[in-house]
Amino acid sequence: MNDNKPLILLSNDDGVRAKGLNELIEMLTPLGNVLVMAPDRARSGAACGITANEPLRYRMVSARSDVEVYACNGTPVDCVKLALEKVATRRPDMIVGGINHGNNASVNVHYSGTMGIVLEGCMKGISSVGFSLCDFDPDADFSLTAPYVYKVARKVLSAGLPSGVCLNVNFPKATAGYAGLKICRMARGSWSSEWYEADHPRGGKYFWLTGKYTNLEPDSEDTDDWALANGFVAVTPVTVDMTAYNAFGGLKDLEM
Question: Domain 7-187+219-241 falls in which CATH fold?
Fold first, then answer.
């Protein structure tokens, strides 16, 4: 790899062979060298999870002059940690997660392995962005996302992001283009009916995670849910500092 070009570390939670990841590689190579360390299988919902009780391994999948691709048997965050310490020959200029097959807006950011990648990069002090397309199809069409990915990634590479801030970018499913791009906040949402229950053929029950998502503020036009529902690309700045500063006053009487 050319050390004179920016280095972009890329991972995902759909696995190293996912279409979204491999399309994103080609979108990012005009901006620099791309180092990929991704899970060897789908790890959706891993959030910021790490592997503490079993050893990790990684292997090279492919390499060319501007791209190296590795697969790891760990979580998305494991991939970032391992790549930074054992594979990257220099500090990346940017860390990117995606392109995820599925929606990571609203409260989904808390469960998302894609955003786990981004939050880990942010905690390491590296400008980080997550990209997700609201389409779970393994063969989803990512072509409409390309100019927006390039624009956002180029902006972050050139200007950086404030300390402790990363970006969550979600694309609506569309066939004829997007209405535009909006900077917005997370919608307040909630999941319910989260388990599908069935009889196990050998007795007892088994459960599959499922669920129904509800936007609790559907009329608020400044949220990511509203933007996506109206055909806009939703860009949400996310902070790793989860301190509720506005709650300090009501808790002061607890101090000793």
Answer: Stationary-phase Survival Protein Sure Homolog; Chain: A, (3.40.1210)
